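We append the chain.
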Amino acid sequence: MTLPGLAIAVVGAVYVIRFMPRILTPREAQEGRVVDPGGKQFLGEIDITEGHAFLGLRARSGLFPGLGDLMPRMIIRNDQPILPPFDDIELAVGDRLIVTATRRAFSRALSRGNLKVKTLDPSGGETAGRANKIGPDMVMAEAVVAPGSRYAGRTMQFSGLRTQFGITLFGLQRKSRMARAALSEIRLEPGDTLLLCGPEAKLSTLRGNHDLLLLEYSAQPIPQSAKALLATLIFVTIVGFSAAGILPIEVLSVCGAIAMVATGCLTIGEAARSIDRSIFMLVGASIAAATALERTGGAHMIADGALSALNGASPIVLLSGLFLVVAIFTNFLSNNATAVLFTPIALDIARRLGTSPEPWLACVIFGANASFATPIGYQTNLLVMGPGRYRFVDFVKAGVPLVLLVWLTFTIIAPWYYGL
């Protein structure tokens, strides 16, 4: 089955990589809110200190390639601004690098720990240059300065957000223009979008605030890069113990989840949010429906009826029709149940036609695994439905063309390969 399998894999991979992203709409949050594809740019400030990851970076062609997604706009050196293009400029200790970047870029920089983004502290003390400790409860969110806000006209340095709410202001986005100045010197205006960071409990205190309007759906946890190795170790251990047969995967999964929370890789809130109750309802309903269809004989009756319509057709048409019927069934029954149901039918067809059973068994195997058109078609579809923010209609829109492509590929390759 290698050659037909490779052909199906290549065609399917081209479709999934090149065309499926254009069909599906990215979403975030439980409610399926559409992600802003533009990627808002925020103005931020980075202090270059001893041992900083950016210390010693030299500009090339007016830019600093080592900054990644952070776009430099100005360097403040000895209270003197250095504007782009930056020719033969090398970042030194004491420089203040003014950058623009998306929230994702700031979040990634914070999680890696190699960026010490300046903490704007009204006291101006030693903590002013200290980076926030990124814990499992740290989130980044956006808030808008409301019309008539008491923060309007204040500089970001003396806004008092850190002392009043215990949160840090990391960036500013202004729709009318992007200021080219030090972040601490910019005066806030109504309509400004602020990039805030702090513990989830602290940010929640902004709810109901009439001066700063917290954008509820913008709050996202900062990735725990420092815990990545530990999380990987837990994952590998669970998989290894399961492969070795030390404990059942059900027990190991629960132990792994507890270990992730106990070691701080996840908070209890994040673990709870990862459980999508609607998915559990869908799993139970799909199992019940499939079991009823199988045990009452309804599935066998539908299969016999569909194949009876192809009675008298050529072997190629019959093979193609069998694949399509199996592919339809597997999106409503489990792939195992579909294979059990259609394997005797495939062997009977091969016996009646006097052909080798190999192409017909391959047809059942490939068709039973073409479960792409519904979330109930296969367990992994249900597993990714919640984290991926997919809906039932997403599987139909993206999966039906994939099923048809797999069917057409098998219809073209199999008769030639098996000599029908």
Notes: The longest strand covers residues 138-145. The CA atoms of residues 323 and 367 lie 5 Å apart.
